[in-house]
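Hey,
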Amino acid sequence: MPRTFSPNERLADVRYDIRGPLHARALEFEEQGRPIIRLNIGNPGRFGFEAPAHIREAIARHLPDSEAYCHQQGLTHARESIAKVMRARGLPEVDTTHVFVGNGVSELIDLALRGLLNPGDEVLVPAPDYPLWTAAVILNDGQPVHYPCPPERQGLPDPEEIERMIGPRTRAIVVINPNNPNGAVYPEELLAAIGRIAERHRLVVFSDEIYEGLLYEGAVFHPMARFARETLTVSMNGLSKMHRACGYRVGWMALSGQLEAAREYLKSLDLLAALRLCSNVQGQWAIPAALEGPDTHTALCQPGGRLFETRAALLRAVGRSRHLHVVAPRGAMYGFVGVRTEAWADFDDQAFAFDLLDQRQILIVPGSSFNVPYRDHFRITLLPEAAVMERVIDSIDDFVEERLRAARRPRMAQVA
């Protein structure tokens, strides 16, 4: 009998539907020559966005300097630029020894959790979350505990609810601000309340701030680290979104707060960083250029800007739809759209997404992929042109109407 090779059992609890079975189906269709409207992933380069010229030039200028490994935590010049930003935010304790550069924030999420968690430790994660957070907790022997950020609260959590979920094994809390997928931007008083909870319970705060500069209609970003001074905060950011450079795979994390108490944790991070030698050197040269160069992202989120206008198109189209609703995203580059299911009792977001792809060639991500208990939402990216967004939302609304009419026909025939 041939031997079977079984995967890690923990993978049974891991999902990443952004590039999961729906994505695979879409690839099959494209191979058959069927064009797909891809709204599943925030990948600016696939929608005509380009990385800023000064970032490209910085990489090109330093290519000859990129052929050897660098320090495991990253290029000193790059880390100093990151530390300078943190100090300007009122965190004077941060220097280059507290900064780690990685192959995107994704790698650093895994590294940061691996350095902290023991089997059975719990991490508070928002629901909805970017699903890598839940997956990385599970794969590093931890237990995710999801705190609700429901549409009824504009996608924001309740601090009292968070505190009731803390148990003896809780080690950390994840804050995603601005949030992916729901676009919530956390007000200052909410961040302060979460910070006080983390300080009281000595929790590490992981603050995912990759969308910090993508803000709409007066929304203001506040760095989490300012509100958790009496514990440890790990702030994460990178080039992928604001600087439209996903393929460069450049992210960073900066530790602040009670650094002396985190000395052994810092050593563990340094060891893990050394085990992978270093992150790609070429992309790191873009960090000082991005952080010290001109602002190329704010205009995208203001009237006339590409993201602003597509967001406005989403809100217009949903506003006139018969079957859809959405909380207006205040940040990031997504809409977390709900389907009115009062007349569709057995609605399931996964089945809906497959049917929509099969029949309308529109690729979305089911809302339950983001670790929420309800199954009546889906996520779409705001990266297409505004006209495309309006057509897509109209098409999705028509698709729901068609399905409801089809469901009503058998009952009407029975009555007749």
